[in-house]
């Protein structure tokens, strides 16, 4: 038998949860045809001896809504073995939209997801109004598969206008129209509907997201419309300050729709039992037949601070503004001039910057770490900037300044603010190993000046499957979670397994050398906008629909990825 591609002799971890076995993987016409001892000829062969062979990773929580319009490559996710991304999360996106509301949606995305408004204005073509038209606009060759969801924020503004922006209650007619538009979007290929109910989400003008306190009647009414169509999933992010009250809304949506619902689930710095209470709520919902799932981060969610980033510890200091507009290396030299350095360190700063996400934390040196060439996302307490400064007999500000002036003025500090309340990742392990959770929250494509978590899949495998000193998690389980379980959470049953008939999305990984690199800044967004990117070592081959898209971390010419329209059936059940 002739094959398009055969991956020979690798340690195959197939996505079922089983551990590795030595096998070949044969591919033809974009699907896997055989796994085992494969005979016959192939147009191309890959020698995977000594490597781990896995399904491609499915990342269900990204924000490539704009990048998918202007770009064919969904980096940084593509560099980390991801072969399918799902965006439109957290209720933000760019459709449906009236022509007069472009600025509102840009401000919402800029504020919530820290994507420069100038880049969005330059890069978005706005050749759509309806959600189906938006899907048509992004349906172009990509380096991985993309899938979209209907965002509540855009939906509310489209239907309610100023009333929606002002967070007024929706009328029954408003709710009916929103439900109709969501159903229309899902019928055209959206995977589902998303919403945000957190005070962390604000527009770039400082206003809360339009969906923050939408009434239960609105949420349930939209969910009922989704359920009537018999397709689609629901995704939400919420503060859960009132755990029982907020979860009651999520539960009511799941009941009204009969559809799967997932939500952001992290360890809270406010209370160690916060995530345990939410896990108990999920278990109770599952016991009642509701398919509710927690989307969990695989490491601390942390802010990157640097002189080229959105945030830095000196950004409210007037001396900083004397050099803020200089080139990085020139700025670093200016800040180390003895007189300016003295003035910077002696001048009182204004403290927090409430206008920016994370701006309240810019002087929390007791939470900051230096991020090294190979980042450590579970650092020890003695690596904290404040602790190191005390041991060295200097102030935290002095040490932070010296660190940030390194690497030609492009060095960064890292400050975990969620999933690290106990100074370790024990609670994260509890979340990752729970039967009703999946990895999520990478936010690939978003927070481009403050966070770079599109590398979550690399951390999941390298840290939890290899490097952690205690409490490691079996690699077979991790692969199942990041491939098959994430795919099923959003209805993509045709991928995430290395088995005959399934989509030929594959990674060949040098597992012993798999690691994240230091985050770096690039100025490659539209209008020269900046973003933080992070590469990885160890991905020998990433294959999408049977075509190698990255080899040893470098892009090939192949762009086999496409828009996935709607849920996909399991190919073995047809």
Please describe what this structure looks like:
- Helix 5 crosses helix 7, helix 7 (172-188) packs parallel to helix 8 (216-229) and helix 17 packs antiparallel against helix 18.
- It contains 18 helices and 25 strands.
- The chain has 3 domains: 3-54 and 505-556, Urease, subunit C, domain 1; 58-300 and 420-489, TIM Barrel (Alpha-Beta Barrel); 303-416, no CATH class.
- Strands 1, 2, 3, 4, 5, 18, 23, 24 and 25 form a 9-stranded mixed sheet that branches. The chain has a 6-stranded parallel sheet with strand order 9-10-11-12-13-17. The protein has a 3-stranded parallel sheet with strand order 6-7-8.
- The longest helix is centred in the first third of the chain and has 17 residues, at 172-188.
- By secondary structure, it is α/β, with parallel strands linked by helices.
- Helix content is 31%, strand content 19%.
- The mean pLDDT is 95.
Q: Can you tell me the CATH topology of the largest domain?
A: TIM Barrel
User: Biggest sheet, in brief?
Assistant: 9 strands, mixed
**Which regions are unreliable across 5 or more consecutive residues at pLDDT < 50?**
none
What is the CATH class name of the largest domain? Alpha Beta
Tally of DSSP helical segments: 18
Given the C-alpha coordinates, what overall shape results? globular
Which architecture name of the largest domain does CATH use? Alpha-Beta Barrel
> Helical percent range?
25-40%
Beta-strand segment tally:
25
Task: Report the span from N to C terminus.
Answer: 24 Å
Please state the structural category: alpha/beta
